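Reminder to self: tokens first, then the designed residues, so the page reads top to bottom the way the pipeline ran.
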């Protein structure tokens, strides 16, 4: 099995990409076969340095290695399949397919057996693995932000601050709330993927909120003030005379607040004219008289 790439390059697990790049270039320059033409040990170390850089010098591979999905050779770790993926708060990490659901202690014993013995020899303290969860929140909670009390697998609870404007699929990182490291190593993180429940009226488009609103034929013809729901409460919308179905009205600042820019999106209200369930004689007579005098072709 290949050596731990962080150890080979002599960098911490928290090292930046630039730190890793500098460490690799320094070692590669020192150990390059052109500078050490007859040194077999240097050639062997050069190969290990190149292999280590191939893992943690690549952003995607580094993430997979840190999550335990691949080993130091770049090969998938069978023991990690399904571990922690999608496990809800309050649940336990899922065991590999076909196995029993074991506690964290059993899982880490299995995963870190080989590295643990090497760590004992080298004094290296590996960082704990990151674990993944999902957390469902309501649409309005995601827009306004909320706090959720959640239970971690070991039984502890914490209040998780769900930020204002969080999007479906966004991942929150809880520093140090993952698996414990070996031999006093740094704990991993908990990665919480947010799932936003669908709302019966609202839809989100970027920082805007979309709403379809039904209005009556009299409101469309004569104009009206109608009550409109928003994520922060109900407001009055002025519908002007002669409003057609499909017309869009903008409620400024009633969308999602963007915490990066500090600006809020808008709520876009699309109106649809809805006729009465039953057309009575009075309405029929009025419309026939009106059509004879003022008929027009809306498709022209």
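Designed residues (300 positions):
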């Amino acid at each position: 099995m290949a050596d731990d790439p962080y150890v080979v390059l002599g960098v911490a697990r928290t090292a930046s990409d630039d730190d890793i790049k500098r460490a690799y270039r320094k070692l590669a320059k020192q150990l390059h076969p052109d500078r050490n033409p007859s040194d077999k040990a240097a050639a062997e170390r050069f190969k290990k340095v190149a292999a280590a850089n191939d893992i943690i010098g690549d952003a995607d591979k580094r993430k997979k290695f840190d999550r335990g999905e691949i080993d130091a050779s770049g090969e998938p770790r069978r023991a990690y399949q399904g571990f922690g993926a999608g496990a809800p708060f309050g649940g336990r990490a899922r065991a590999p397919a076909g196995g029993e659901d074991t506690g964290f202690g059993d899982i880490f014993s299995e995963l870190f057996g080989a590295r643990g013995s090497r760590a004992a020899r080298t004094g290296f303290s590996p960082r704990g693995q990151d674990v993944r969860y999902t957390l469902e929140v309501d649409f309005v909670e995601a827009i306004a932000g909320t706090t959720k009390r959640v239970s971690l697998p070991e039984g502890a609870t914490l209040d998780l601050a769900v930020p204002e404007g969080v999007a479906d699929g966004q991942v929150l990182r809880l520093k140090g709330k993952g698996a414990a490291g070996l031999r006093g190593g740094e704990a991993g993180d908990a990665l919480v993927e947010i799932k936003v429940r669908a709302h019966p009226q609202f839809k989100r488009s970027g920082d805007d909120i979309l709403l379809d609103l039904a209005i009556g034929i009299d409101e469309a013809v004569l104009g009206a003030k109608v009550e409109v729901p928003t994520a922060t409460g109900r407001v009055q919308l002025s519908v002007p005379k002669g409003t057609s179905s499909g017309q869009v009205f903008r409620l400024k600042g009633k969308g999602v607040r963007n915490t990066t820019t500090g600006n809020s999106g808008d709520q876009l209200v699309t109106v649809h004219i809805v006729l009465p369930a039953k057309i009575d004689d009075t309405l029929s007579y009025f419309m026939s008289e009106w059509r004879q005098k003022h008929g027009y072709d809306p498709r022209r």
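The chain has nine helices and twelve strands.
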